[in-house]
Amino acid sequence: METGMRRLVVVSNRLPAALSREDGQWKVNAGSGGLVTALAPVLRNRGGMWIGWSGTSEEDADVEGLLSDFSAEAGYDLRTVPLTSDEVAGYYFGFSNEIIWPLFHDLQTRCRFEPDSWRMYLDVNFKFAEVVARSTTQDDFVWIHDYHLMHQAFFLKSMGVKRRTGFFLHIPFPPPDIFMKLPWRWKLIQALTEFDLVGFQTIQDRRNFTNSLHRLMPEASVKGRGAVVTVDMGSHQFRLGTFPISIDYNQFAAIANRPEVARAAFDIKEALRHRKIILGVDRLDYTKGIPERIRSIQTLLRRYPDLHGQLNFIQIAVPSREEVDEYKDLRTEIEQLVSRVNGEFSFPGWVPVHYHYRSFPPEELVAYYCAADIALVTPLRDGMNLVAKEYCACNVSGDGVLVLSEFAGAAAQLQKDAYLVNPYDLEGVAKALHRAFHWDKGQRQSHMSRLRDLIRKNNIYWWVDSFLQAGIDRKLGDFPPVDTMTYERG
Question: Which SUPFAM superfamilies match (predicted)?
Fold first, then answer.
């Protein structure tokens, strides 16, 4: 590799390891979620670094000591940004998740535009930027992730710190009519223009951003065509790109092909008497459309009584933000809907809906993917949705069906071979499921084969390469693995 770009540094709200107290003792747990899954393999043994919050605000935790062993095993350095409970409340729960999250998912009625949350968001972003400045050099490429940290480049520049910076937004960017409702809209979009590269999941997200930018900063002009364009602000330029995130296809396919996973998938089918399985997998969140999905199953069973006893719907809901009242209410609503549907349709030997509110180990989740005949992925709005891609990668039988919300970012990539639906249209979803239930094997196999080929080619490493190529004219291979023993000693 040429000199001039030494390390890849990832910055996100959370580190890929979280601290928790169990039986009075602090424990380090490997992080979960799309970002960790995507980037941990990329940084491993390449001399990289990950900067973020440890997940605890308690002062008695020896954060650095606890994370050192994890860091050595992970193969990259960790740098923590300490946050107080007030900072977490204002920056994370307040601004990030009660303002930006609902607003960017087109659910502005859920927003709480508290000025104190905005001020805390800026304070914490400055705190992150200070750690980035101390932990990196001009030779590093600093890749900042997601809506929690949109002011990193702005604060680095305000400190006079020169860094090559890229920003990737994992969630959607809303249309101008929605974005303009944000009281701090000008300051936020101005901060985003300070990055060298800003990446989005879809062309539509990028278009929404440029339309909002033109409204607030008419002097901005966009040049170029294709996946990456240049924005001229007069005083400086930056690049905008579309980079749909993906998964490690080979890893999921390899797990799905393990004999013990195949056996577990068979056991799931056997327990359900080899009925057709419709599967939903989501983090518990109001953007995922789980209540609407259950009502669609109810509509399906009401409209097509011939399906009674012929299928099972399994919904896996991974716990999330359990301390937030809105999420507690959502969990209650889902549980009541499940009870209602099962109460209406169950008969001896058949309960139509199986609901699991817990986290699943990767192998067990893959077994469910393998067992499912139909994946029902119907978020109300989603940046990408990796569940859709994980299901296809794990569908080694090659005859599954992906029923996908047209409002998921994944729909832009997978629309030709997924069955697209409007998650608000209960009858439309029910009709799609009924059709999918009766598709012949040849149809299912041809669509799934093309889906699997597309995801295999456009995998997580393709995503990283695309972003690095646009940001610094480098590829992942230009950050070669270092000697593991040398790394561990160093």
Answer: UDP-Glycosyltransferase/glycogen phosphorylase (SSF53756)
**Active site includes 308?**
no
The per-residue pLDDT for 486 is 37
Question: What stretches of 83-202 show up as alpha helix (H) in DSSP?
Answer: 85-87, 101-104, 115-135, 152-158, 176-179, 185-192
Predicted TM-score of the model (pTM): 0.94
Is 170 annotated as catalytic?
A: yes
Of the residues 145, 170, 373, 465, which is catalytic? 170
Q: Angle CA(18)–CA(286)–CA(265) in degrees, nearest 5? A: 70
Each residue's pLDDT tens digit, 465-483: 999 999 988 887 777 776 5
Q: 46 or 352: whose pLDDT is higher? A: 352
- Predicted confidence (pLDDT) at residue 187 exceeds the cutoff of 80: yes
Q: Among residues 382, 417, 447, 465, which one is catalytic?
A: 382
Q: Residue 484: is its pLDDT beyond 50?
A: no
pLDDT, residue 28, reads: 82
Say if residue 354 is in the same domain as residue 464: no
Tell me 139's DSSP state.
T
Query: Does residue 315 lie in a domain region?
Result: yes
For residue 39, name the pLDDT band (cuts at 50, 70, 90). Answer: confident
Give the CATH number for residue 106.
3.40.50.2000
- Report if residue 2 sits inside a domain: no
- Positive or negative: CA dihedral 166, 169, 173, 176: negative
My answer on whether 484 and 404 are in the same domain is no
Shared domain for 443 and 366, answered yes or no, is yes
Residue 401 lies in a domain: yes
Q: Is residue 272 over pLDDT 80?
A: yes
Number of domains in the chain: 2
Domain that holds residue 364: 249-457
3-state SS record for 7-43:
CEEEEEEECCEEEEEECCEEEEEECCCHHHHHHHHHH
∠ CA 16-331-419 to the nearest 5 degrees?
80
